[in-house]
Design brief:
- It comes from Candidatus Sysuiplasma superficiale.
- This protein has 337 residues and is of the alpha+beta class.
- The protein has two domains: 220 residues, Rossmann fold; 64 residues, Alpha-Beta Plaits (2-Layer Sandwich), CATH 3.30.70.250.
- Helices cover 34% and strands 28% of the residues.
- Strands 1, 2, 3, 4, 6 and 7 form a six-stranded antiparallel β-sheet that branches. Strands 8-9-10-5-11-12 form a six-stranded mixed β-sheet, with helices on both faces.
- A hairpin with a 6-residue loop joins strand 1 and strand 2.
- Helix 5 runs parallel beside helix 6.
- The structure holds adenosine-5'-triphosphate and magnesium ion (MG).
- The site of adenosine-5'-triphosphate has 13 residues, from strand 3 and helix 1.
């Protein structure tokens, strides 16, 4: 009983696993969600891409009925989060950014605990099948503290799938993982999406991950959805290439605007973003109009999700990253494992 939405053409309808309209969440004077409206079709891997503090975890908390929004509406797996939070909770799984496993228990005991917490009956068959699917059957009776990071991630996914949810939420599932484990996890997420038919909503601030793994994306910045679509739709929105130039002192952009091949110049102070048709052709012209001694940094961006973010917000995703003490400790814990 999922929400049905008309597509833009009106000729087809798609099942929506998640639909939000104008969600707002405030923490004191901080607006963590600012009129968030997204549609997530059933059966897709959907990515929420944004820097630290963008509102990703807050959106997951609202959609998993852990916290209430201050405004707006949302349905998850066909149920309204405010009117039917328990129906929502029955149909969702959550893989948190923090470690949630009990290290002193075995894999099987962790599954048992999860079943108790969720009041599940007849869970053992599903648990056995999940361990088998994830390649953990022969480690069912090992204590989790003996597990590698990849094995722990697999077990966290088994816990999230134990009650056969129709959607799972993964909050930065690959944060702090080495590239090999990250790729293993991408394959696993694709596999459970296909084989278990579950819709996946994952958050990430890794551009590469959003591009490689997600069929559809929403880019979130300071609580607002600033763009949404498939990775290729988003990339095709950015016309041309972007040249970022950082200078000592303030540079007058007016002469650059007159150059052939320059579409626009934005930015302020000592940092400009120049949109051009072709950086190879136009960069020499730009340099000829500038005091090259004053240039501190030049960076050329070909069309990519990074350019989409830069184009829309005027900043890079990694520039907005700040020290996050919670993640710092999560990484240390993982490193110790
Ligand atoms: N419990 C809280 N109390 C007060 N402010 C909060 C709380 N939770 C989040 N915020 C604020 O809301 C904003 C969004 O935070 P949120 O955790 O949703 O971001 P995020 O996109 O998940 O970031 P990250 O990538 O660092 O996990 C931030 O400004 C944050 O400081
Ligand atoms: Mg977060």
């Amino acid at each position: 009983m999922n929400t049905v939405a008309e597509t833009a053409s009106g000729s087809q309808s798609v099942n929506l696993e998640i639909r939000t309209r104008n969600l707002v969440k405030n923490y004191g004077h901080v607006r963590a969600l600012d009129n968030v409206s997204i549609d997530i079709p059933s059966g897709t891997i959907f990515g929420l891409l944004g820097p630290n503090g963008a509102g990703k975890t807050t959106l997951i908390k609202v959609l998993t009925a852990l916290i209430k929004p201050d405004g707006g509406q949302a349905t998850v797996a066909g149920y309204d989060i405010l009117a039917s939070p328990f129906e929502v909770k029955k149909r969702i799984g959550w893989v948190a950014a923090e470690v949630i496993l009990d290290d002193d228990l075995t894999a099987w005991e962790n599954l048992w605990l999860q079943a108790k917490l969720q009041n599940l009956k007849d869970w053992t068959d599903t648990a056995r099948k999940l361990l088998d699917y994830l390649g953990l059957s022969d480690r069912a009776d090992s204590k989790v503290k003996e597990f590698s990071t990849g094995m722990r991630k697999k077990l966290e996914i088994a816990l999230a799938l134990l009650h056969n949810p129709s959607v799972i939420f993964m909050d930065e599932p690959t944060i702090g993982l080495d590239p090999g484990t990250r790729r293993m996890l991408w394959d696993l997420i694709r596999g459970i999406n296909r084989n278990y038919g579950v819709t996946v909503l994952l958050t990430t601030h890794y551009i590469e991950e959003a591009d490689a793994l997600c069929e559809r994306l929403a880019i979130i910045s300071r609580g607002k959805i600033v763009a949404a679509g498939t990775p290729s739709e988003l990339k095709s929105r950015v016309k041309g290439e972007l040249i970022e130039v950082e200078t000592e002192g303030v540079t007058d952009p007016s002469p650059l605007r007159l150059l052939e091949g320059v579409r626009e110049v934005t930015g302020e102070g000592n940092r400009m973003i120049i949109r051009v048709d072709s950086s190879e052709e136009t960069l020499p012209l730009i340099l000829s109009k500038m005091n090259t001694m004053s240039i501190k940094k030049i960076n050329v961006q070909k069309p990519s999700l990074e350019t989409v973010f830069l184009d829309i917000t005027g900043t890079r995703i990694d520039e907005e990253q700040q020290m996050d003490i919670r993640k710092f400790y999560a990484n240390i814990r993982r490193a110790r494992q």
